[in-house]
UniProtKB/TrEMBL annotation:
SUPFAM superfamilies: Bet v1-like (SSF55961). This is Uncharacterized conserved protein YndB, AHSA1/START domain. Pfam families: AHSA1 (PF08327). Residues 13-152 form the Activator of Hsp90 ATPase homologue 1/2-like C-terminal domain. CDD domains: SRPBCC_CalC_Aha1-like_2 (cd08895). It comes from Streptomyces indicus. InterPro entries: ASHA1/2-like_C (IPR013538), START-like_dom_sf (IPR023393). Belongs to the AHA1 family.
Amino acid sequence: MPRTDRAERLIAAPRTRVYDALLDRNSLETWLPPAGMSGRIDQWDPRPGGGFRMVLTYLDPSDSPGKSSDATDVVHVHFADLLPPELVVQQAVFTSDDPSFAGTMTMTWHLTAPDAGSTHVTVTATNVPPGIDQAVHEAGIASSLGNLAGFVEGVG
């Protein structure tokens, strides 16, 4: 049965600033990797139908082996839908020889504006591969949201 993981956060920044950070290569490399990882984007095409390839590297691979190699997770992300400034839908496929990580996971980033200076971000991951531990995945999404908040709240 397909699984859904989610996380949410209120960010003290305007919705357009948050949305822009979801579609800027340098921004994503900075804030998207969760705690304990670094990230590098190799390919970049920020439009509906486009996407990117990101290599996430574990800072301490002995604690968390990678899906693609001993120290990395490689993910190919397709932009399935972009609706500025409220929605980004990504379809993510991990590079892995392990079938428990196979399949296409959909990540939906929904942004609402409770007021002019803040954004409520809800991230919903559907069709999560069974090899990805739910608690670890939700903690990783929450970590990325915390990084996103720090990134966009610090922009003047």
